[in-house]
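Work package 3, deliverable 3.1, input record:
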Amino acid sequence: MVLLQAVTAFHAYDTPGSYRVNCYLYDRAGTSYYDTFHADVNIKDFVQDELVVTSTADISHDAGQVLNPITVKRYNSFRTLNTGLSTIVPYTSGSGPDKDFFRGGYDKLTYGHLYPNTSFVQILTSSGIVETVPINSVKTIDTPIYIKLSSNEIVYTDVSDTEAFFAGVSGISDVYFKSDFTGDYNLTFGFEQGDIFEYVNTTNYGVSAVITPNVSYNSLEFSSNGIGGEGADNFNVFDINSEKFAGTKIAFVVKVKDDQNFSNRTVPNLSSTQSSVSAINFYLTDGLSTYDAEFTSDFGSLSSLSNGGFYKGYFISNTAVTLNNVYLSGAQVNYNGVFLNGASNTFTINPSSYYTVAKQNENIDFEDAFKEIAIQPLFTDARVLMKDFLGSIFGYLSSTQDSIGKATYEKIQNFLDNNTVIDESNIDQLDSLLQMLDLPKLNKYSLPPKLKRLMDLLSISKSKLFGRRNRDKTQYQSYGYRSNNFYGYNLGEKLTPSSIIIPGETIVATELYSGKFITLNTTLPLSARITPVITITDGIVYGTSTGVLISAASEQISEGVPISIEQASTVNLITSGGTEILTEDLLASSQFYNLSDYNETWGWPLLSGGGRELTDIYSFYYHASSVGDITDSIINFDDPNNTITYGITSYTDWSKDNGIMSNIFANSLYEGLNLFDT
Amino acid sequence: MSLSSLQLDQSGEFDLLYNFFYVRNYKGEETYDTFALPFTPLTFEPNLTDGIEDFISNKRIVWDFGDGTTTSSNSFSCLRYTWII
């Protein structure tokens, strides 16, 4: 905007620089005076592009250590942000380019981080994880700067101010210099050439550094790839994964750490050769037992390195049972007179196909199917044709779920659910259904058949997959055959007037004249107007959830004592060796009363009987608890191949990282990539 | 900065004019420095002596701000007219 008031002019400049201002006047004939006064004005950005590099301490520390932060502050004007925030580039002189992590190309190598190198590093936090990361550009924590004019003064404000003008950003960060080589270095920082364009000359700001020998060897660090914590950052993302499989190569890297937990790459590499000066022994253990495992070194292209202070290899466990909470332990004896040891994180080794999920209608035995339809006498004894030929093509009952016969049969039998039921359908069909309703498309991927089956199956909600248990616990009718599944299985032992009733343990009354069953709340009498006579025991009283009172005597049971579920249905129990164990002493008293104390104030919905005894009208039974059948499940829990059980897990265990679904997928990927040795 | 003068050339015509002007920032302070912001303009105010209007045009004046921006007008009849460009 330009204002001219009378002959007074106003001008706001857009761009920093030095400008010469001229005022041209003209005579009455319109001819300009050919020389006029001029003024040179200087225009600058409110936030000028600048780097400020400071360090509170001398940059002097041992090789491999990440100490003595260098504070880098940036200021960038709003105009330089038009092409994005300018890049701050660190540079070191004093070491050859082949030693630099980036210029030496180590960042392009899979295990480049194991080579001794020099680099600038930052301790960055992402998603709550703190990591020490080599950098070739400095990442700053930036704050926008907003200003406005108030009473002829420029004041700071924030974005919520309607008069706010975005003037630029300031940013700050701590950068460290790490080198695995001793020596003197000059460290410089500057904006990347071209980022600040014509307004500012990029200026380098520098400090010097001295790296001294690191003679500290303190411990061994295990990880899956050699990227672990440095110093105090506790970075453990690349620990050995918590779920592994037997029969596969489980890779690991061991590194020598100094007494401040920094990687010491100045020492010789570790070796599994026992005659070596840096010999190391490995064990697979849970702290109590040591398990068989075959350890193999696998330095690959790193084998040419003599120094680096690491060991790279893998191990294979061929366990036939799940090994829970095992870890790798390494001990290196007498390395330069120092005893080094260390242990990995704990993990679980599952046998392959530990979790196999079977879908409804995948339990077809095509050998039997062919036998049933081949009724000609010619085929009845043709074992080779039926079993070896057709059976091997189409599969048996024990064949994998993706065998031709099972896959085909499942597609036919489950056609309706797979194609039209929106919460059970396969992914492709679900996408078609969504498109039909003008809903957003799904991302569809071309997957191998095994993975596609798992994606189709495990994308269904857990509640649909597992179905529901029948929670009806009122199966009291006892007519019909005893062998009938529904034959009164919730009806327990018949009570006598002297039978004890435990509050909280349901009982059942039967109207003798009508056969009607009534479930009675045994806690109600405790608050009745005329309460029963309460007997208080010193210990626990046996429960009646099985429909039977095992004993009327009370018992005191101490922590660690095996207990059956009938004894105490309301306490927390843990299982040990297949036996339920009390988790704490049961010393609190409990109580019971007798059925013979019954009166109408108890609140039970029973008929009065018109003067007759209650037992003339009703029979009473303990209520027997039951576990109902599973209904409407997509998983076939009766399939002999299925290893998923209904009560296997919570939703969290099912869906979490390295949970059961993850394990099923991982198993399939391992199979597809031929990572199982056997 | 506050001087202005007219000088005669050799022919006796007024042909050379030095017109001094004040430069003020957004606070009204005399300075040659300011920020490249829309709300921190510089003000350029000529110091014209009495009688100069007898020699200069009241139709045309041009400011060249040095950044490629110029202002001009040929329609003012009085030096105290207000322009907004």
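Chain A touches chain B through 51 residues (CB under 8 Å).
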